[in-house]
Amino acid sequence: MKVFVDTTRCEGHGLCAEQAPGVFSLDDDAELTQHFEGAEIPDEHLTASRAAVNACPVGALRTVS
Ligand code: SF4
Question: Do the Cβ atoms of 37 and 6 come closer than 8 Å?
């Protein structure tokens, strides 16, 4: 599974980083980094990543299997 961030929608709420801190992080300017951008999410982060996608309040995260 891959996770894509729609940066035009992301508002930097950080709920994804709370759910999956090994996958998402925000810098001091609320800029989001997805640490596996363009790559498969490692198995150990899959459950947390799905929770993060569901937690985003603006639908900025999309998965591709
Ligand atoms: S939860 Fe959604 S809006 Fe918030 S930082 Fe993550 S992707 Fe962006």
Answer: no
Ligand 1 pocket mutation pick from 3, 23, 26, 32 by most atoms within 8 angstroms of CB: 32
How much is the pLDDT for 17? 98
How far apart (Å, rounded) are the C-alpha atoms in residues 36 and 57? 21
- pTM attached to this predicted model: 0.94
Spell out the domain ranges in the chain.
2-64
CATH no. for 2-64 = 3.30.70.20
Mean pLDDT over 44-65 rounds to: 97
- Which of 15, 24, 49, 50 is the pocket-test mutation for ligand 1 (most atoms within 8 Å of CB)? 15
Average pLDDT over residues 53-60: 97
Instruction: Report how far residue 12's alpha carbon sits from residue 57's, in angstroms, rounded to the nearest whole number.
Output: 10
